[in-house]
Amino acid sequence: MMLTTAKSGNLVLAFSLLCCMVMAVPECFSAEPAEVINLWTGTPPGPEREVGEEADTTGADGRTVADKSVIRLGNVSVAQAHVYLPADNVRNGSAVVICPGGGFNILAWDLEGTEVAEWFTSIGVTAIVLKYRVPTRAVDPMWLQPVHDAQRAISIIRGRAAQFQLKSDRIGILGFSAGGHTAARTALTFKRHYEASDNYDGVSCAPDIAMLIYPAYLSNKENTALEEDLLVTADTPPMFLVHAFDDGIPAEGSLLMAMALRKSKVPSELHMYDTGGHGYGLRPVADRPVTTWPKRAEDWLRRIGWIK
Hints:
Blueprint: E1 2-4, H1 12-23, E2 35-38, E3 55-56, E4 72-74, E5 80-84, E6 95-99, E7 106-108, H2 110-122, E8 126-131, H3 144-159, E9 171-176, H4 178-188, E10 210-213, E11 239-244, H5 252-263, E12 268-273, H6 293-303
Helix pairs in contact: 3-4
């Protein structure tokens, strides 16, 4: 496990480099996905919910991030996988399912979804933005239906690996906040949480890596241990974690996860920053070194052989 810290100040060079990496739209990126896959052919698993019409719920006074608005997609009842393909000359066979955050109420669709797909495709990684079902906060447990959707997405993408020119053993998951919780649950799960319905459900739903960016709800109320049913074993996939100490979502969740990974000898990398708050996605902010995390993640992906 690698632990790094960073302090504010002297960020001009780092900020400029990150702007070049993240803010510029790569020529190979299309704002429209190559394919949108409806994950369920019949009634999806879990209790039926009346959620209203799917829509951007951002109000006129909605919070901005890096002086840009955020699409807050609400009332999602049809789970989908939005597939973004890298250009042929950079495609490397790796893929990552992206789980936007939103407290299991909404999905931060652009901030923690399509903008992340843009970055991944620029480095040759096929990006699958998961439109999982929300809101589910009134469902017990609130994470179950999102995990159903994540498991199903991984199985379908792995089942169609040849079509998307993917390595079936290089399909990962990344999540932010509540999406980070969804990604963690999916990575730590050793069984499918729903009954198999077709051939895709005969394909493994286990991710090969997990990337947890300011993940939520990992620790108990006292922040002294992981939630009891979050079990790390030697079979847990390698993880990359990012958190800030001043995040309203306790940083102890990421710290405890890293400690459990180390105890089980699972390769992992944790980047803990002194400041940065919550919900920054990968939009660079000059006085927040935590927003340089995509560069750290790119280095990690290169070291483990997922990108060139």
